[in-house]
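Notes from the 1:1 (GR / supervisor)

We went over the backlog. Supervisor wanted to see one worked example end to end before approving the batch request, so GR pasted a single chain during the call. The sequence is below; no edits were made to it. Supervisor asked that the structure be written out right there so they could see what the output format looks like.
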Amino acid sequence: MKCPFCEKEIPGPACEQCGHKNPEDARFCMNCGAALRHETAPSNGEEDEFDLENRILCPDGTCTGIIVDGRCTECGRPYDPAQNGVEE
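Structure output shown during the call:
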């Protein structure tokens, strides 16, 4: 799968149903919606590495990444809260 913004190849599994390549951490196929099989480690009760309720989505509009440390995790686009109407 390629990033629609920068054309960089995004690693990830192919769907067993339709063959569509998906992002690495996807749980469902972005093309047909089939569940993707992942081996997951048993949960030890710790928090996820980021807060799902308060995450910031990439302002690009077509990218599926989130903002971590001031940059999008998928396309690398820098994020400026002042330009995007977010108060810190």
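Supervisor's comment: Residues 1-43 form one domain.
Batch request approved.
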